[in-house]
Amino acid sequence: MSDHALETSETPPLAGSKEAMRARPRRERRRRQEGFFGAIPDKAYQEPVFVGRSIFGRWAVVSDPAAVRRVLVEQWANYPKTKMDIEFFNAIFGGGLLGLDGEDWRLHRRIMAPAFDPRTVASYGPAMASTIQSFLARWDALPDEAPIDMSEEMTALTLEVISRTVFSADSGEMGSLVRDVLLRGAETSAAANLLDLAPVIGPWRMRRRKRELAEASRPLDAAIEKLLAERESRGHEGPKDLIDRLMAARDAETGGRLTAKEIRDEIVTIYVAGHETTASTLSWTWYVLSQRPEPLARLQAELVAELGGRAPEPGDLARLPYVRRVVEEAMRLYPAAPGLSSRRAVADDELAGVRIPKGTSVNVLPWIIHRHEQLWEDPETFDPDRFAPERSADRPRFAYLPFGGGPRVCIGQVLAMNESILALAALGQRYSARLAPGADVAPKANITLQFQHGLPMILERRAIAWADGKSVAAEAVA
Ligand code: HEM
User: What is the pTM of this model?
Assistant: First the structure.
């Protein structure tokens, strides 16, 4: 039973920080700086609006909080998501919220919003908590000091949670059908390249892809249709799950409801948008905690004081303020969505005094805003107390936006926060994790923030006094 992380006082530079970049030999640094992070010049972390030009035209990276508010909220109609972005999601995952715009998007969002409001999300809590406990039992069955890939573990956990939240008792079969579709979608998006932007051949490739994906998702479509028909005639026992809510949802203005095909598209979208992001958040949280003994010790102290070994329940969320701060600060340094979808200016505008001609691609990048030197003191340091009420009161709303903002803000943000806090509380109470020897942690920006080489870690069982005295870990400790 090792408490390695608590004993050491070393504080290595965090992956992706400027110190970590500088500490590497030049060739290694170049390799790491390839892609999204390498292409960001230092000035982007210093200027309110940073502009440039590429073969696709003029672009701007907007970091000034008032200017971000203008793009996402005040003038959001002037900054719609680009057609390409919407079509990309539409082709791969169908007409769910991510693949819709205009009136269609507005209608779906209105119908779906009640299924994600805080009170309704609270009703998914017990299923979420029990799924996390079942997952924990799997860790309990591993040998001491088990080597794991934390990012794979967190992906498995968040997939189970989303399956149970959406389908409850039907999650086994339905979950695996959705996963098949996701896998095909991921293969298809990985195969995307510049040819997709070419005239004639681009739309042709897109149509072919749509056809192949429609073919691949037939078993899922049939199963969803059957499930909806069964629930329509027999109902569903137990607490309402997300699919019940989507079936029952009516638009308050028109009385309109979602069709079976629309429900299917929304479910696939919820899986896509909801599991990899939460898995990324949890994985990066484990990583930063493994590098920072003091916040880890405070987190564990809060868990012992508030839970004392019992399983956390949704009602405990308000009693775990430090766990929440840890997740919030991990999402600042490692936002699961490092960049929001690009927007394009419909008409000329001005942002923080910078002229934005019509057609400019406007980018709001949480990765940059969250590490911006004008917005954060000591931005590269992991300091959960930044999110203590007294230190956050004066912070501009758009200096921190892991879930985006404005009308297209993440619909699942309350669900994601509840899930992350409950998971970290349940798992962190029984386990800590240290990096495996030789682990090479480096961020990789896909649509979500991933790891270039996975996150190999060693699980450490914690020795604490258990309230029930019965848990597997307690017996192991005794
Ligand atoms: C920590 C976890 C999560 C993060 C960091 C996150 C982040 C985001 C961000 C930044 C956006 C806005 C994208 C943009 O404006 O370009 C978004 C949209 C969205 N998210 Fe999340 N998300 C998370 C979890 C979830 C969960 C759990 C669900 C569902 C269960 C979900 C469903 C969605 C949907 C459907 C949209 C599209 C909303 C629309 O366009 O109306 N997300 N998310």
Answer: 0.91
